[in-house]
Amino acid sequence: MLEVKDLHVSYGGIRALRGVNIEVPDGKIVTLIGANGAGKSTMLRTISGLVKAEKGSIVYNGKEILGMPINKILELGIAMVPEGRRVFTNLSVLENLKIGAYLRKDKAEIQKDIEWVYELFPRLQERSWQMAGTLSGGEQQMLAVGRALMSRPKLMMMDEPSLGLAPLVVKGIFEIIREINRQGVTVLLIEQNANMALKTADLAYVLETGEITLQGTGAELLTNEAVKRAYLGE
To answer: How far is 39 from 212, CA to CA, in rounded Å?
Structure first.
């Protein structure tokens, strides 16, 4: 269980998060929707230790992680798939996957997990020796997800996984998110495609200008009139 309580974050005088509270229960898919600049990415970057908070609390499985070094947060089982994929373009697919396991020492298990990632993404196996920079956008997104999985996360945070991808590829990415979740990984998802995100999520939050304005199940927010008008184009 991840619990964010009264989180305040500012960037150069701009208050990005203003007293945000969210819960991410074990085994669930939780999504955070909102317009550009609402503070969604700031939330993930603060949880993962990349951004410092002014005040608040982030508790993961009973342990306060706010202020903890990034590598320690990763060791606890929290991984992030960053916005824009951020694969290592001049390294091969396989080398990118191995980098995801850099904190691990269990070589035999690492090899098993590479095979598991290839089962999830057969396309990556076909291109295992190809430079990541030559992959399509969808393939790079698969690689970014696969690389995060190599750390054996209990909680995977995903920042805009569908950004810039064709609709058919987006559908495939969301199917993979569900499959990863079925295999025991909790998911915290930030997504511009509110329709797909809400259809996929067990729980959902709406973030507007740094504050949570609505929360409920994904199904509840899909039928909420305010959400329909603001995010679903209805």
So the answer is: 10
According to CATH, the topology of domain 1-77+153-161+170-234 is: Rossmann fold (3.40.50)
- Contact (CB, 8 A) for 82 and 40: no
Q: Per-residue confidence of the chain (234 residues) as pLDDT tens digits?
A: 999 999 999 987 788 999 999 999 999 999 999 888 788 889 999 999 998 999 999 999 999 999 899 889 988 999 988 876 788 989 999 999 999 887 777 888 898 999 999 998 899 999 999 999 999 888 898 899 899 999 889 999 999 888 877 888 888 889 889 999 998 999 999 988 899 999 999 999 999 989 999 999 999 999 999 898 888 765
Give the whole-angstrom CA distance, residue 40 versus residue 115: 33
Strands of the 14-24 sheet, one edge to the other: 14-24, 2-11, 55-60, 63-64
Give residue 222's Cα distance to chain centre. Answer: 20
* Domain assignments of the chain as residue spans, ordered by start: 1-77+153-161+170-234, 79-151
The helices-and-strands tally (H runs, E runs) of the chain is: 10, 10
For 20-58, letters b (16+ CB in 10 Å) and e give: bebebeeeebbbbbbeeebbbbbbbbbbbbebebeebeb
Burial bucket for residue 8 (CB in 10 Å: 0-12, 13-18, 19+): middle
What lies within 8 Å, CB to CB, of 175 at 6+ separation is: none
Burial class (CB in 10 A: 0-12, 13-18, 19+), 142: buried
